[in-house]
Amino acid sequence: MGHEEPVVAIARLRSAWDEEVRPSARRALFALTFAILFGGAHLARLGSPLARGIAAFALTAALLGFVLRAIILARRRRDLRRAVRDTIFKMDPELGAATLRALTLVERTAVDENVGSPALAGLHLTRLLGRAPIDKVAQRAARAGDRWSRAGLACGLIAILAVVIEPFRIIEGLDVLAARAGEAPLSLAWVEDVEMIAIPPEYLHQPSSEIEPFSPASAPRGTTITVRGRPLHAGRAVVLTDGKEDVRFVDDGAGGLVARWTLGDTTSLWVAASFGGVRIRQADAQPVTSIADARPVVIVEGAPRTVRLLEEPSIPIHYEATDDHGLREIDLVLRAGTREERRVLARPAADVTTDRGGYELKSNDPFFKRTYTPVEVTVEARDNDAVAGPKWGKSASILVILPQVGEPEALRYEALVKARDAVTDLVAFRLTDTVGAKEIPTKKAGAAPVPTATPARAPNPQEHLKREADAQAPAVKAIEGALSGSYGGLTVRGRLVPLVRGQLRRIERALGAERKSPTKESHQKLLDETEEALLAVDAGVRSLGVRDTRTVAKRLADVADEVALAASAGQGVERTVAMGGSGAPEKAGAPILPAVQARLDAAVQVLDGGGTQLLRLGQLGLDLGEIVKNDLRRIARAREAKDLFHAELAARDLAARLRRPAPSFMGGGGQHGGGGGVESGGSPSAGDGEASSADEEAAQASREIEELARDHAAQMDEVEGALEKAASPEEINALKEEAKKHADAIREAIKQLPSQGGEPGSAESAAAAGRDQAESMAGALENAKMREAVESGKRASQSLAEAKRAGEQSRGFFPEERAAREAEKARETIERELAFAEDALAKLRRASGERAKGDLAEAGKGEQRLADRAGELGKKGEKGDRSLPQEMLDRLSEAEQAMRDAERALREGDGENGLRQQRDAQRLLEMTRDQHAEENEREATKDGGKNPAGKTPIPGKDSGKTADQFRRRVLEGLGGSSDPLLREAVKRYAEGLLK
Amino acid sequence: MNHRSLLRLRAPRWIAPLAALGSTLLAAGALAEPAPHPIAGDLLRAVRARDAIYEMNLPAARSVLSGADPADSALAIERARLGIYEGDYDGAALLLGRGDLASTAEGAELSYIALGCARGMAATVEISDEQRGVVVRLQDDDDRALVPMLIDVAMRVRATLFKDLGVDLHKPLRIDLVRDQFTLAAMTGLPEEAAQTTGTVAVAKWGRVTMISPRATSRGYPWLDTLAHEMTHLALAQGTRDKAPLWLQEGVAKREETRWRDPEPLDDVPPVDTVAAVGMARGLGRPLDKLGPSIAMLPTPEQASVAFAEVQSFIRFWAREAGDDALPQLVLRLREADNPDDLNRAIQEVSGVDFATWDKRWRAHLATAPRELPAEVAPGGDIPRAREISKRFRLGELLDRRGHYQAAVIELSRAQALVPGDATLRCGLAAALLATGDRAAAAPLVERVEDLHSRHGRWWSLHGLLFPERDPARAFSFGVALDPLEPSVACEEKLAPELPGDAIRAALCEAARRVPQ
Hints:
By secondary structure, chain A is α+β, with helices and mostly antiparallel strands. In chain A, about 60% of the residues lie in helices and about 15% in strands. At the A-B interface, α9, α12, α14 and α15 of A face α5, α6, α8, α10 and α11 of B.
């Protein structure tokens, strides 16, 4: 090396080094790059976030490394010291160190003259550089280049190997690596020769169809779309996807792949390969429109509407339910506050898409009994959607506004008071009208015109009689109107009806007597009878008012309890009590929760309404109604002070009081008070006694008729027992043998009947009851107990008939239908065997009549006593406060006659005839008793089956439920005929008519 | 006598079955049949507290119980009793809910009362006249119009009792005006059935007067005299430490019930001596010292009437014979009495002879009393043609309501002819006649009080209306004292919207018109 510039010398050394190393290094780095890329692709193909992360990191790190290396190398080329260290220093460290010092000296002399001569320093450096062995540098660089070459070769081999395994994997891997949100950017083909078939859900009963692949299609929701194809790349996890869910293709056993997709919502389907969490789609998309199963549509005639139950005691509900595929169940749903009740109206057979029917919601419906808030009534239908689950369709609602507690009773009471007032007007007329009078207006506006006596006019008996009749007519009409009216579903029943009708007969008879002989005496008699009738009606009405008040009060007690409970619930745990401390144990003043307020408001509102109705129910009602109003003010006062503890106490006080619905004051100086002592005691006031004994007499008559009917039934049993007992052992044994076969026939006939009942009122339940009774019949037959057999047989036949009817109304609900079918079959046998039993019983009785003569004669005496009692009852009912209606008197008289006939037959030993007469008598007694029964024994509502007067719409034959209900109503109405003997016959007749 | 037995002696005998009754009557805090657990604790201190309570010296009782150990059952029971006497029913009920107290007979009895009071008086209106020392609680706030008269009468009765008995009733006097016999029973412990049998309208017990509102009865009752009667019981209880026997309690109360005011014409109608004599002759009477736990618990209203007549007659006789000072002296001596002999001794000391001798003298006196009584007021007698009277009366009512006044007059005339002395029928007929415009025929029916055998508020208001020249204000007051919430009586026969001139009467009239009819 000559005396070149130091910089040039150092550059030459660097250049010699680079010429040997750089090419090899470049090749090695290139190979390394590919090795990382291909390796990363393989790694990324696993699809997991970790694998993809590592691959991405490796690639990025390699790229960054290359760039960094280039920058570092460029800097090193400009750094003379570094060049010295990389070249000279590595060959000859001493020379390298000296060169570096010389270089430092040159740099120092360049900036500081005091250090020395720059020229000398430069010369010194040049000499040192001149001593550097350039060939050695080149040799060393060649060795380094060699190492780079070997590394490059290794990387190259690795990269080649990664490609050679399966070049497509590199593409897949890079595609997966570039994926965003689980979807690779590059679509790749996975299957070919694709076929698609749509299979609708089974419940639709539709055939399958082919879909042209990758063209828009539509199918019912729940359809299974089957996709078949040939795989293009083996070993891939090929899936059918909508981008959210995947269904994996599986081997179809014929070298192809198959996947089944159940259609939910409208979507597009793709074939894709799944790599871990990444899908690489095939480019083709299959759009599928899902046809949803619609919710059933229910239409209720006239809905939405609001009904006041008081004005419409019977709410007809006609509905039509439709569904696109099929209905499963139709329910009537009643909701009030948090209460809900569902009643199955129909369970249509499969595939029925339309159902029509009707239901009659009546004011005496049990749901209304303890409900005081408005009731929302809807009809709801459930479809048969097996895919998304059954859906309910709901009709518009009918909002039923219930009467206030006691409102029907108050209306009834007021109607009866009006009727009583009409009789009062009649008494006023008769008091002031004598034979020969003229009509003058009454003194009170609004009251009926009252003719009054006028001595100035000559007596005119015919005119007087006409006026008497004319005056009586409105009173009779008012009473009949009140008795036949319906008051929010409540009617006038019980002992008041015969009481009032009996009094009407009483004044009719007296008027008839005056007609025959229009004298002052007969007029006076008519007046007396009318006065007594008025007092009797008054006593009956007041008694009803008291009974109704007690009933309503007890109902309101429950509402008061609800107020107490709501107030109690509102107090929570905030009650702070100081033992023995002040009297305010509640943390008064704390805010009351809105939910508690609402509950309290609702109950208080009901209580208030009920209290108002109590005030309309006569003397006791006024008393208790005033208490309700007062206690509501107490509750309000406590609530206003946010003192729920005392609100609860006041409500409990009211509830306790209403549960003892006695007058506020009793005893001592008479029922009205005032005549008593200062603290207690005293004697009754002169006018305080009962003005009429009619109500007590009516109650007594009711009891006596009931007792007579019961005693007579026992007498009948006695006769039957006597006849049975008198049968000879031979007759019994012969009968047993024959009856055994009939018992077997019965058992055979009923073996298909269900042994356990379903819901009450269902065909299954009735059929199960029929089975039990038929088994009893069979048992009785085997033991030759023919009377028991007949009774059980009759009940069994009745139950089975009921099962049949219930089954017919089930509208295809299988268990019900089956029960009805089996019941009908069994009933035929039961009826046949019943006829046998009745016949055998009659024969047995005829045969044993002679032997039982003594017992029968004794029974005849008993029958005579009963006949006397019936006669006595009729006689008592002829006149006075116990006057009974003519119809009842006639029945009692007929019953008495039948008893006397029975008595004669029994005395003569004709047991069979005696029994027949007894049955007639019993039937008549029961009819009389039923008419006289208390209203609390039989709920006094006409809507329990009998429609009030007026036109009844007759539904068409295809109006579904309505027609069924109409049929049932007619059957119940006619079957409930007042004559027990005719009841079944009339029912059968009605069945025939309706068919 | 140990303290425990003393505690038992003090409990009225008839109250024991109430513990069982309470469990059915009360929805809240149902009581189980209490086991007869003895009361434990500081019995001496408890007795001191109880004596102070019976004496109505409530501040003294409070002082005795101050700082008492809450766990001490005997003292806790007295604290509860004090609560009831002070009107702190909630606190008493709460305290008596403790298991250790509820399991004792006395705790159960008090618990029944406290719960009944707490329930009956919850969220009611309390009117307090601190100046005059009267606190009135109204179960029905519409009875507010009665309060001024109640307070006024209470003041007058207090003064009379001080004069007659030497007892100054402690303040405040507590009056609970309840709506019905149901609450009366629940708050006092008197069985409801007993109240309904004898027609009980008021009870003085637990340091207060509990009386039913006149609105509970459809024709009212002598409510102001009743207040005086009950206050007398309180005064006797206070003056004698509740040691006065029943005959003395009731006899003095009957005597005092009219002494706070001027005598009224019907105060002794029918004459008590005659009622007692006739009643005893008919077997309805009982020996004075064998009246049972309470007259209100006698089996029939007739027996209750005769018992009242007996005790009233006896005390009237005794006071007349022994002198006016005898009663205060007797009260004073009874205060220190410890047993029945002390009572007899006290009577002898203040009146010269013992009770048995007085009883004999009184019976001799009764033998001289006239025996004539109208049938309708004679104890145990049947009213002749009662059904006919009731029938005509009811027909008259019905016809009157329908506006058939002439016809009503016919019927009511027939009824009135059968019982001419019955005030109810007289004023019913007079009202019907007035409606027909026949004022002249109506007036004689309500003219002479001497014609009457019974009292009726409306009779007095009609009298005031038809005889304006004969001090109508007095007549209207008599009417209001009998039937304050009958609109015709309260409004002095004025038609709405006209009101009586006096502000208190005007308020009463408005309240009466609000009563549901």
